[in-house]
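[worker-b] picked up task from shared queue
[worker-b] task type: protein-ligand structure
[worker-b] ligand name resolved to magnesium ion; SMILES cross-checked against name lookup, match
[worker-b] sequence length check passed
[worker-b] input payload:
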Amino acid sequence: MIPITVAIINQKGGVGKTTTTVNLATAMAAIGKKVLVIDLDPQGNATTGFGMAKGNGLDSSYGILLGLSDTASVIRKTYVNGLFLIPSTIDLSAAEVELFSLPDRDSKLKKSIANLEFEYIFIDCPPGFGFININALNASKKIIIPLQCEFYALEGLAQLFNTIQGVRNTINKSLIVAGILLTMYDRRNSLSAIVANDVRSHFKNLVFKTIIPRNVKISEASSHGKPVILHDIKSQGAISYIELAREFLNRELQHEQ
Ligand SMILES: Nc1ncnc2c1ncn2[C@@H]1O[C@H](COP(=O)(O)OP(=O)(O)OP(=O)(O)O)[C@@H](O)[C@H]1O
Ligand SMILES: [Mg+2]
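[worker-b] inference finished, payload out:
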């Protein structure tokens, strides 16, 4: 089994990266896939989003990012069946500087997660464009880009696509954008519809048909350390992330053809 590794990335903060990682991974596990989440953000929101304690020092994603820990030993089981986690730690905030001086600073994570027995690995990326994110892009086969439906949504996207192209030209030729995901869509706010139309007219089929609405159950769930699917399966948030998992899997079939 060769895992399909997916980086959830956008250098912009607060656009729904972590929420998408936690809930898409949970929906995939609910469909029966064996899934690993790697929390690469020093903020550790994906870790606490599963109600898990952050890691200590090397017993975390920091240890594998620097190639100092045995990967199997840092993987934890979550209470979601089939879903495992490599937790974040605050030490990750030093990793940018520590990676800088290493000759293989772009490929540490890729080496650490080669040959793991999972069907899918989802990486929750921190905001910004540092070596942590270059490692995530190098280690991944696919990317999902969450985009918040707000006025400045498209700002910075050109820079993100430039970075992705740079990675393709150098270290990871086969990197694919699986899709752009519209998040926090508010149907009472006409701006959301305007932004969604704008993004679709620019990026066409690259944009997932599934839209994640702004839904209080989603933020409520994360404050309880739970994916929304386990918090309130009937909520619009849960329904949308299950729908996203289906669409993601359908796109997988198209990529294989
Ligand atoms: N669809 C949604 N409906 C309501 N609240 C949401 C939704 N998606 C995300 N949020 C809330 O918005 C905030 C930012 O989301 P999230 O943490 O997923 O973004 P992020 O891109 O990971 O941020 P960062 O760049 O800081 O890592 C969180 O408080 C989250 O609970
Ligand atoms: Mg986050």
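[worker-b] attaching auto-annotations
[worker-b] DSSP finds twelve helices and eight strands in the chain.
[worker-b] releasing lock
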